[in-house]
Every structure is written in structure tokens, then in C-alpha cells.
Amino acid sequence: AQTVTQSQPEMSVQEAETVTLSCTYDTSESDYYLFWYKQPPSRQMILVIRQEAYKQQNATENRFSVNFQKAAKSFSLKISDSQLGDAAMYFCALYSGGGADGLTFGKGTHLIIQP
Amino acid sequence: DTGVSQNPRHKITKRGQNVTFRCDPISEHNRLYWYRQTLGQGPEFLTYFQNEAQLEKSRLLSDRFSAERPKGSFSTLEIQRTEQGDSAMYLCASSPSTVFRETQYFGPGTRLLVL
Q: I want to staple A87 with a disulfide (CB 3.0 to 4.6 A). Which of A48, A82, A113, B78 is the partner?
């Protein structure tokens, strides 16, 4: 069985500062994909960034970047220049196929942006 | 390009009643997924369809749950004889079947409360 662990239930950051959200995972598959999703209060889940396990280069999307450490099975999300609109629940998710085509999610990290 | 839509957005029912939710995926997305999200948790995979074929069901999907996607377009999720433990957010997601099929796009969810 595959697992995703987010050890930070809540994080707080000052507006314009940088914050890093942690995620570790476990899978026996060699081909898999990792995602960060954002879920604002009472709004739908939005894809923030994705990473293919076979790619060594860390993915970046504007102010969002990941630190993918395959050997350590670690996949952290860095948000630079935090904005008030970044406040949300952030979920780390794993897709490994191999007959299990659903995403496996962590429990989420509640990100608070302080003005 | 319209996103994934779900109806109703909210549903309150009494224990023992049947409920049905609908999901309309992004046009031309062949894959459709159902997840359940309880308070303070990440979404949990329930089932998925490739076109009209239901290819995988989680052990979370008890006999009281049934899902259909009759023409490979919209899908319905029915819960029979609802129980208070069924109270949750039910999320639908879709993905293309080829390039980036691993990336799922989520709808706003249907929040179910069983009294």
C-alpha cells in the first residue's frame, strides 16, 4: 500500500515571506507522479504543481517550486513571496498507477498568511 | 473550457434515505473519479471510470454505494440507506486518458449531511 504523510497540520507565514510545506511518501512503484493541490475555504481543489518521478529537475510554477528528493521519498513545496490568496489547505498527493489509479492524499497542511 | 461541475452542492437527508449525486467532467476527459473527504482529512479514492467502464473500486465503497457512467459522459453516485457515517464531501475529478492522464481536475464537491 502506498502512503503520503504531511507532518505539519498548520503553518503560518508573513505576507511576502517564503514558506516550505513538507511531504513524505512511500510506494513500491518505480514510476509515479507527485502533486500539490490547494483547497481554499469552501472552494474546489486546484492543482498547484506536479512532478514526474523520472525527472531529476525540480518542477517550478511561478512562485511555487518543489524540492523532490527521490531517495529520501520527500516532496516539499516552497511558496515564495507569499500572498493573502495563498491561504488554503494544501494537500500532497501521489499517483502510481500499477492498478491503483486513484490519487493517495496526505491529511493536508493549513496555511495561514499573516498580513 | 468549463471545469468539472457537481450537483447538488449541498444535500441534507435523514438516515435511511437514498441520495444521488451527479458529476459532469471536463469535456473529452475520458477518466472520471469519485473521492470522499471527511472533515480534517485528505480525499480518499472511491472508484473510477474509463469512459463508461468502472475499472476500480476501493474497499471504502460498500454495497450501499453504486456509481454509474452510462454514456461515458456524466456520472452518478448513489448512496442507499444512508448512515450518519456517510456525512462527508463527495468530490468528483476527471482527467484525459492520454497525455497528463495522471493529473486530475476536481469539481467543487457535494457536501452531504445525514441527520
A: A113
